[in-house]
Amino acid sequence: HLSIRRQRQMCKETGYEEAKPLLKQFLYDHPGHSGGHFYLGRCNSESKEAYWFAIAQGEFETALTLFYRDGKKSRIQQFSDEYFEMICYLELVKIRLRQLVVLMEFRAGKTQMEPILKGAEQALENARKALPNSPDIATMEALIKPVREYVERFSGTFPEPNDGGRVARTQAKVLPGGD
Fold first, then answer.
1. Disulfide-capable partner of 89 in 69, 72, 126, 142 (CB 3.0 to 4.6 Å)?
2. Angle at 136 between CA 114 and CA 145, to 5 degrees
3. pTM, to two decimals
4. pLDDT digit string, tens, across residues 51-91
5. 146: Cβ–Cβ under 8 A, 6 or more apart, which residues?
6. φ, ψ at 132 (rounded to 5°)
7. How far apart are CA 168 and CA 160, in angstroms?
């Protein structure tokens, strides 16, 4: 069996893509291990494949669910209980910020971006509750602030470009759930 310490070391040494199959096997054998889900979330969030961050989001949410089920105990020896909770939430903030970047690239409007931005802000507040004095909180606040200002500048959606529908067809192909 692969220890959680070895998983972390493997992610650093061999790269995230190479660590994924071993982490999946570890989780097959230990499905309730919050630390394994955390590291698989990290692997997926670092993936070069487009939109793997959505899968990573599920892993971080699973890690948090298991963490709470286990009485708010970190299964990663190097992480205090508070740090594990905070870092899971900060990973969720990062994922939601990446989702917002994609929406901005596709010229989404405030109505599409607002719920994701609120999710990022709520995840940041949850991280702050876990470890209020962490400098990582201020770093994430600094990342969210310009996104909030960007979203506030728009009251609806961007006007459709006059391109004969090319952008809409491209979005349908690229975005999850598209044809």
1. 126
2. 30
3. 0.80
4. 788 899 999 999 999 999 999 999 988 899 999 999 999 99
5. none
6. -60, -30
7. 9
Cα separation values, 68 from 45, 63, 75, 76, 157, Å = 22, 9, 11, 14, 38
CA R_g for the chain: 18
Distance CA 10, CA 33 (A): 17
Q: Which two tokens stand for residue 164?
A: 């004969």
Tokens of residue 145, six digits: 């602030």
pLDDT digits (tens, 9 = 90+) for 137-160: 999 999 999 999 988 887 555 554
Q: Report whether 78 contacts 8 (CB < 8 A).
A: yes
Q: How far apart are the first and last CA of the chain?
A: 41
Q: Which residue has the tokens 């220890």?
A: 3
What is the rounded distance in angstroms from the CA atom of residue 169 to the CA atom of residue 29? 42
